[in-house]
Amino acid sequence: MGIGTRVFVLGIDGHFRRLPYTRYERLWARNGTDSSAEVFSDHAGKDVCFAVLYLDMEDRQPIGVRASEFRRFKVRSDGRIDVEERERGHLLALTIHDASLAPRRNDQVIDSVEVFLKKQHRREYMWKPTHAQSLELRRLTFRGR
């Protein structure tokens, strides 16, 4: 038994297609300029949505979903991920983490900064699949099972 990863990109047509994990990893790499190494020409000028599934595997076949992430990235007009925007999202996530670790002044008072930062991060950098999209991801992940 082990852990595997499946990455899917939501196409312009509303359907998912599988993306090799190495291609997804290249989103985090830079090609020597201020842009990511990977190009998504069909999403130029739009947002691109990714579903990353962390799977329990047995005999190299998925048997369950351990965790999932649904990320959204802005794509520039040249088809590359907007690195500045992506890094702004990372900075926002770190700010949320720092706020959650900050000492509380009073246990009965909710720190609104953390709450609003989480909402902003979810709104700008995450997405939630519809029921039909969840079913399609399940079908694509567990083919023949």
Task: State the major sheet.
Answer: 4 strands, antiparallel
| Count of DSSP H/I helices | 4
Name the helix and strand elements from N-terminus to C-terminus, one letter apiece: EEHEEHHH
Structural class determined from secondary elements: alpha+beta
- In total, the number of domains comes to 1
Report, as a whole number of angstroms, the end-to-end distance. 17 Å
Which descriptor suits the 3D outline?
Answer: globular
Seen as an oligomer or otherwise, the chain set is: single chain
In spatial order, strands of the major sheet run 2-1-3-4
- Rg computed from alpha carbons, rounded to a whole number of angstroms: 18 Å
Description:
There is one protein chain. The protein is an alpha+beta fold and 145 residues long. The protein has one domain. Helix content is 34%, strand content 27%. The chain has a four-stranded antiparallel β-sheet. Helix 2 runs antiparallel to helix 3. The longest helix has 19 residues. The model has no long low-confidence stretch (mean pLDDT 85).
Features:
single chain; 145 residues; alpha+beta; 4 helices; 27% strand; globular
